[in-house]
Amino acid sequence: MPKVGMPKIRKPQLVKATMAVIGKVGLHSASIALISREAGVSTGIINHYFGGKQGLLEETMRVILRQHSHTVKTALKALPADAHQQRINAIINANFAGFQTQSEVTKTWLAFWSYSMHDDQLKRLQRVNEKRLISHLRLELKSLLPMDKANLVAVGIAALIDGMWLRGALTPDGINAQAAQIIINDYLELQLKKHQN
């Protein structure tokens, strides 16, 4: 029987190990044996806490999504509610900040993107994340643009964020957060000028 309080230690340890193993061998080869070895625990612990590999993968994605959501919300809380363009910039920048840009996290994101096409639960989590991003952007953009244009620009920004992530995850140097922020914020500026005139 696990000791009281151990889930608070073991679960994050196993999630971190999952990301490390996915970064080394990919999602398909990330076995329970490799993950438990990386975490320094028995394979039975994964089954106990997560019900197997699938449960651990889902929890890993949820952890990444929660951290990402926290980063975005923290950035938005620091700004006045009526500073719409600054808030959009903050949403963009939060997608390329801290935890989200760590090599193991980007590799895990990329693996989940690919795998979610064939897994209903991971697909649902990915859609929640996508809808949240577009919703945050649309909320701010509709104060600056007509609604149809706000929708279009929100989707454009989300596509650029995904594209910069994909390119960064596939290059040895990883995501260039500064370049991504400049490119996407430049697109935003151009769209605001185009549609506000």
UniProtKB/TrEMBL annotation:
Keywords: DNA-binding, Repressor, Transcription, Transcription regulation
DNA-binding region: 31-50
Pathway info: Amine and polyamine biosynthesis; betaine biosynthesis via choline pathway [regulation]
Domain HTH tetR-type: start-end pairs: 8-68
Pfam families from the UniProt entry: TetR_C_6, TetR_N
Keyword Thylakoid (UniProt): no
Entry coiled-coil feature ranges: none
InterPro entries for this protein: BetI_C (IPR039538), DNA-bd_HTH_TetR-type_CS (IPR023772), Homeodomain-like_sf (IPR009057), HTH-type_TetR-like_transc_reg (IPR050109), HTH_TetR (IPR001647), Tet_transcr_reg_TetR-rel_C_sf (IPR036271), Tscrpt_rep_BetI (IPR017757)
Domain of life: Bacteria
Known role: Repressor involved in choline regulation of the bet genes. Repressor involved in the biosynthesis of the osmoprotectant glycine betaine. It represses transcription of the choline transporter BetT and the genes of BetAB involved in the synthesis of glycine betaine.
Protein's name in the database: HTH-type transcriptional regulator BetI
Species: Vibrio olivae
